[in-house]
Amino acid sequence: MNQNVQKEKQNVLKEEENVQKEKENSVGSSEAPVQNSGEITASASSKGKKSDSSTTDNGTSLSGKGGTDDIQTIANPASIDVLVNKQHKLPENYAPDDLVYPNVRFTFKEKIKKRMMREEAAQALEKLFKAADKDGLPLAGVSAYRSHKRQKTLFEAYVKKDGEEKARTYSAYPGTSEHETGLAIDVTKSDGSCAATGCFAGTPEAEWLAEHAHEFGFIIRYPEGKENITGYTYEPWHLRYVGQSEADNMFKNDLTFEEYADQALVATGS
Ligand SMILES: [Zn+2]
């Protein structure tokens, strides 16, 4: 038994190494969405319950100045429609327990963690990719799941290099990256070009996604012109699975996830 655990550990380490290597080649692009204004105030958070506010996990060196005090810890991290953003973070010890490998094209061959998604999202993604294929706009996955540990390691390295204030402008604070939920994925054209970079905007693939992602339960999480609500610049490549009816609702009413969550709070009167 011990041997197995040991083996698994080694595999995980190996994977992390691979991810590290890849990441080093692409620092500064995709998952470090640049958003410079530290003054963003997302409307969803202000209405959230105050009960568990400012749970700044037992004094990690990361907390403190720089606006981390108003980050609330999410109570329902495993729900499909969990809202994760700069004001709502996943609990320190959360990891999804139903991660699988979606059977879709990726921009790399390795069977590593960043290929994984939660089961329901993975199945929906397979359908979405098939539909895109059918419409002559084949896609490829770039990056899906990222462990909390991984995000933390990355962020801490950035802080060391640039200081926390600067690091926070281009890297998600640990626990606040949607990729940690296993419900988000960055995609691009099947030839791998424009992977999680601005040149993906305006491509037929990006336009197809904007129009059809909701049919499969996904939303374009950081739409154009909503930066002051989501806290992120436009990312036409970042898909978030929220479930069919939620995605339809947000699409039809042209709502960001934050706006949708706000309305849901009002609707339930809580
Ligand atoms: Zn992303």
Automatic annotation (TrEMBL):
GO MF terms listed in the record are:
carboxypeptidase activity
Quick check: keyword Metal-binding in the entry? Answer: no
Where's the D-alanyl-D-alanine carboxypeptidase-like core domain? 115-243
- The annotated region (Disordered) lies at 1-72
Feature: compositional bias, Polar residues? 28-40
**A biological-process GO annotation:** proteolysis
InterPro entries per record:
DD-CPase-like, VanY-like_core_dom, VanY/YodJ_core_dom, Zn_M74/Hedgehog-like
Q: Which top-level group of life is the source organism from? A: Bacteria
Q: Which Gene3D superfamilies match?
A: 3.30.1380.10
For bias type Basic and acidic residues, the affected ranges are 1-25
Keywords, sorted A to Z: Carboxypeptidase, Hydrolase, Protease
Q: What is the protein name stated in its UniProt record?
A: D-alanyl-D-alanine carboxypeptidase family protein
